[in-house]
């Protein structure tokens, strides 16, 4: 039964910072991309936020992908340690 919980702390050290970084960076990236798309389309940020433009899904997808890659790049050493335990 003790083997069931082996690696729990290593997993926690991997997951907690990873999820914290992911959710914090996702909003920053998404807001930045929405501002970029608003500027590129010639709208003010307020007008752009009110409209349901076709770039919202692109901003969300790019923010999610970029944030996921950056988070895994930061947390990968902890994943290797967790795997070796």
How would you briefly describe this protein structure?
This protein has 85 residues and is mostly helical. Helix content is 82%, strand content 0%.
Compile the SSE list and pairings.
Elements: H1 8-41, H2 45-50, H3 55-84
Helix pairs in contact: 1-3
Could you tell me the number of beta strands?
A: 0
Structural class: mainly alpha
Can you tell me the overall shape? rod-shaped
In which range does the helix fraction lie?
A: over 70%
Ends apart, CA distance between termini: 16 Å
Instruction: State the order of secondary-structure elements, H for helix, E for strand.
Output: HHH
Number of helices: 3
Instruction: Please mark out the parts with pLDDT under 50 across 5 or more consecutive residues, or reply none.
Output: none
Major sheet description: none
Mean pLDDT: 82
Q: Into which percentage range does the β-strand content fall?
A: under 5%
Radius of gyration: 18 Å
What would you say this structure looks like, in words?
There is one protein chain. By secondary structure, the protein is mostly helical. The protein is 82% helix and 0% strand. It is built from 3 helices and no strands. It has helices spanning 8-41, 45-50, 55-84. The radius of gyration is 18 Å and the shape is rod-shaped. The protein starts with 7 loop residues before the first helix and ends with a helix.
Give structural attributes.
single chain; 3 helices; 82% helix; mainly alpha; 85 residues; rod-shaped
């Amino acid at each position: 039964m003790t083997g069931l919980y082996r690696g729990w702390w290593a997993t926690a050290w991997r997951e907690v910072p990873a999820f914290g970084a992911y959710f914090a960076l996702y909003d920053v990236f998404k807001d930045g991309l929405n501002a970029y798309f608003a500027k590129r389309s010639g709208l003010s940020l307020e007008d752009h936020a009110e409209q349901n433009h076709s770039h919202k899904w692109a901003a969300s997808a790019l923010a999610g992908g970029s944030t996921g890659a950056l988070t895994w790049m930061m947390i990968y050493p902890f994943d290797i340690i967790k795997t070796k335990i």
